[in-house]
Amino acid sequence: MRRPFLLLKSVDMNERTWTEVDAYVAERLAPRDADLEAAQLAAADAGLPAISVSPLQGKMLSLLATMTGARRILEIGTLGGYSTLWLAWALPIGGHILTLEADPKHAEVARANFRRAGLEAAIELRLGRALDTLPKLAAENPQPFDLFFIDANKDDIPDYFQWALKLGRKGSVIVVDNVVRGGNILDAGSADANVRGVRRFYDMLAKEPRVSATAIQTVGLKGYDGFALAVIV
User: Fold this and answer.
1) N or C: which end of the chain has fewer CB atoms below 10 A?
2) How distant, in Å, are the alpha carbons of 23, 59, 65, 86, 222 from that of 56?
3) pLDDT in tens, 81-128
């Protein structure tokens, strides 16, 4: 007999609580690392927006790469390279991550962070708009990528997702960040291009027979948002 779901007692929570819980868990499960801290400081000093993943989210990406045995990773949206470092650390010997960044300043900071961490041999950064770079990449007929992390402008997520399908294989995992937008995805009439892009992405996921997908809402240091996870079947 199927057991009924248990109703948990409602807890009054706010962003301060989320942040404190993040700090508590990160201290134990994502301990401070000199290269990661230097990467974040370099990004802040260069004036890059503070929109990278949190330490726990970075650890999650690293674990996903490990669990899937990813040898080839494609990241769309480098920023200062913080998430790239987390992903690169999960690569086996001979593994490779290709990361795409449109902003020259962001790319300069990221490359310096990769050199500092001694990971430049495992990471290739291509500068330019991803929607310009991806067709060129496909024309190279590369080996399929095992894992995709999409964390760039949200209005183009549907297009990035389509490229991931073309460049992946059966079993490839696609992770997309910022797909809850503080709950604003519920607004069908939103004028926000990011919200509209995420909503189109969900509509695409719902109709795409080549993937099995879900989405997870998150709270914490980065506020209220979420990730979409899809596997090519």
Assistant:
1) N
2) 9, 5, 14, 10, 10
3) 999 999 999 999 999 999 999 999 999 999 999 999 999 999 999 999
Per-residue pLDDT for 6 more than 60?
Answer: no
Each residue of 157-181: b (16+ CB within 10 Å) or e? bbbbbebbbebbeeebbbbbbbbbb
Local confidence band at 2 (pLDDT 50, 70, 90 cut-offs): low
CA dist 28 → 24, 66, 162 (Å): 7, 19, 37
Q: Which two tokens stand for residue 44?
A: 């802040």
Query: What is the DSSP-derived secondary structure letter of residue 71?
Result: S
The number of residues in the chain equals 233
Residues 163-188 have pLDDT tens digits of 999 999 999 999 999 999 999 999 99
As given in the structure block, the two tokens for residue 117 are: 């961490």
CA distances from 127 to 98, 103, 190 (A): 11, 7, 31
Tokens of 102: 């449109």
Strand partners, 224: 219
Amino acid identity, position 57: Q
For range 60-73, the mean pLDDT: 98
- CATH fold of the domain at 15-232: Rossmann fold (3.40.50)
Query: Among 193, 183, 192, which Cα is nearest to 226's?
Result: 183
Each domain of the chain, given as residue ranges in start order, spans: 15-232
